[in-house]
Write a structure and sequence with these properties.
alpha/beta; three-stranded antiparallel beta sheet; Rossmann fold; disordered C terminus
């Protein structure tokens, strides 16, 4: 048993309860006397007070007011844990589809390795919505969904040569991801609950950036409550970039305008930029490994977010039992004012 409003709230109703009880008692007494006969005549026929009846009246009145105060304090019984409706987490994966991701310093190559990491991520999801931003010099987006099969089909056949614009623009990818996580209108926010959902961007890239300011884009995303976790893919040693024909066969390696071979590496400078992106949004930076350690670490962080949200949305529900006190209180107060305060002369002679 507990009281939800125990304290001053119960005592605030005490004067009002006493006033109502006195008014009701006086009204009932006058009504009863008027039914017997002339009120003045009936009053004159009453005899001296009975101490026993006055004691019973006082006790009934005290218990009635006490019950009324306890009922106002909202007594509650039991207690069970109830989970409010879980909103889940919205996740957007920004996957680098630039040609440098074709490098084979991580087997089978960076892009295929990233897809394997992404597949591992999807297998770990449980009811969260996921969207995809494929980016090189520009972006291609797949909207948020819980249809993991459709999301997987989107990126499975996509490659660097399918991107409309070459190069790498990490900042543009972050901005596109943030737009996907933002409700378009206030009405949409009310209906879908997106404003209250946790928002995460997982950036998988080799760190090379040719245009824009990715750190500034990360700052803007942080202002919208978005957390960015970054997984760096590649080695720190220069690696040649294979060139592929339309049928998928290799044809040497990529060259620049001067016909010199182009190399790529996840340099310390690139990693520093990726760390800054994560830190600006309270996220983490991980490096992809052969054991999926990068994406596994990200999923561990997401699980912590989900657990925190679950714990925050647990409430204890109690059963209201104010009626247990209210009904007896009303009955006792009625009894207190119905009981006569005096005994008749005839009744005392019989005794």
């Amino acid at each position: 048993m507990r009281f939800a409003d125990l304290g001053m709230l119960g005592f605030m109703v005490l004067p009002a309860g006493v006033a109502i009880a006195l008014f009701l008692g006086v009204w009932l007494r006058k009504r009863a006397i008027s039914r017997v006969g002339n009120p003045a005549t009936v009053e004159s026929q009453l005899r001296r007070p009975s101490p026993y009846l006055r004691a019973v009246t006082g006790i009934a009145l005290f218990l009635g007011i006490t019950g009324l105060v306890l009922a106002t304090a909202r007594p509650q019984y039991g207690g069970r844990i109830q989970m409010l409706k879980k909103r889940g987490i919205d996740i957007v994966v920004a996957l680098d589809f630039s040609k440098s991701m074709l490098a084979q310093d991580i087997l089978p190559n960076r892009i295929d390795r990233a897809k394997l990491e992404l597949n591992e991520l999807i297998e770990m999801l449980t009811g969260d919505r996921i969207g995809l931003v494929a980016f090189a010099g520009d972006t291609i987006r797949f909207p948020l969904t819980t249809d993991y099969t459709a999301a997987t089909a989107f990126w499975r056949g996509l490659g660097p040569y399918d991107m409309p614009v070459g190069g790498t623009a990490i900042g543009k990818a972050i901005t596109a991801s943030a737009r996907m996580l933002r409700p378009k209108t206030e009405d949409e926010s009310d209906v879908t609950g997106m404003a209250g959902r946790s928002k995460v961007v997982i950036l998988l890239t080799d760190g090379e950036d040719h245009t824009g300011d990715p750190v500034e884009a990360a700052k803007q995303a942080a202002g919208k409550g978005i957390i960015i976790h970054v997984v760096g893919i590649g080695s720190d040693s220069p690696e040649l970039i294979p060139r592929y024909l339309d049928d998928g066969t290799t044809m040497g390696y990529q060259k620049d305008n001067k016909q010199e071979y182009v190399t790529t590496a996840l340099t310390s400078g690139n990693e520093e930029t990726l760390r800054d992106i994560a830190l600006k949004t309270s996220g983490h930076y991980y490096r992809a490994g052969s054991d999926f350690s990068g994406i596994t670490a990200v999923m561990n962080e997401i699980r912590k977010m989900k657990q925190t949200e679950i714990e925050a949305r647990q409430i204890t529900v109690y059963e209201e039992v104010f009626q247990w006190f209210l009904a007896p209180a009303v009955f006792l107060m009625l009894i207190a004012f119905i009981i006569p305060q005096r005994t008749s002369f005839r009744w005392r002679r019989r005794r």
